[in-house]
Amino acid sequence: MNVLGIETSCDETSVGIIADGKLKANLIASQDFHTKYGGVVPELSSRAHLQIITPLLKDALKRAELDINDIDVICATAGPGLIGALLVGLTFAKGLAYSLDKSFVAVNHIEGHIFSGFLMEEKPEFPYLCLVVSGGHTLLLLVEDELKIRKLGTTVDDAAGEAFDKVAKMIGLGYPGGPKIQQYAEKGDENAIKFPVSRLENPYDFSFSGLKTAVLRHLQKEYGIELNIPDSELPDLTASFQKAVSKSLLNKIELACKEYNVSCISMVGGVAANEYIKNRLLALGNKLKKKVIIPKLEFCGDNAAMIAYRGSILCKNNILHDYNVSAFPSLRGDEFILSE
Ligand code: KG4
Ligand code: ZN
Fold first, then answer.
1. How far is the CA of 295 from the centre of ligand 2 (A)?
2. What is the pLDDT of residues 313-327, one digit of tens each?
3. Residue minimizing CA distance to atom 8 of ligand 1
4. Is residue 245 part of a domain?
5. Of all atoms in ligand 1, which is nearest to the CA of residue 81?
6. Which domain holds residue 74?
7. How many separate domains does the chain show?
């Protein structure tokens, strides 16, 4: 079975091809021009997806040494994401499937991330704990099998990636903030400033807005309302912030490991690219004797390989969609599996 995946939920246009279970192409075109606006501009994102999607598909087919007629199943992200951006990939995929008379699968972007660990050589084993940490979501999940995902906790305000981006903006590092904060933090002392780690009613929920405010208060107190922060202060500040985010994520995982009988922990999404958090999770896995699966960089951020993979699993379970599926901007309640 040859599966084509298309991802356009935010600022990455991506086309992936999995042929007979092997990843043959995962092309990602990042829209770097948003940097100068300090965040993703939805309208510009949709236009850029439109411009690049056809040439990207052609390149991916070439890379996979396949013809479009060799593709059996076409999958596309239906949401959550920016509505205009989603519509580009979803409509493109539907049109392609309709005109070529191929099967079509609409994929939930978060499900794509959740199962991205399976793109690695060493794969997660069910049931496992999955921490989704992206720009829009922070979720702790119990993944029981291919079709059963239980939500244990979510963020009550900002997502982890959003916290990185907001703090980076506050200290003048620009967008996206995650990689820049990580870079500065490498040279800093993580114990220099004590930032709070939130406690919530549901012990598996997350909150990052208090941390963001604590960073702002600290900066205003030290450097005045205009935040004239000397460059030399950035390493300690970013390292202390990164430690607080990591602590709040890992505390929940440790707690869940006590309650749920799992042998494996997976961390996925853009923030899973963070070397510090990655190392802390690996150390925790070691301590708790749990296998830790973190996708490689290419599969942490938005990519179509994960969409093709998730689509192929749904297809294997006879879950196909008709052309009535529409794009959806946010998660619908507790629902993950688009198919149920
Ligand atoms: O999963 P993703 O590519 O897109 C969404 O679905 O949201 O995640 C993007 C997020 C951004 O907030 C970005 O700042 C964050 O992932 N990110 C990082 C790192 N690389 C990307 N956060 C912390 N450390 C990183 N190295
Ligand atoms: Zn994502």
1. 13
2. 999 999 999 988 889
3. 270
4. yes
5. 6
6. 2-114+299-316
7. 2
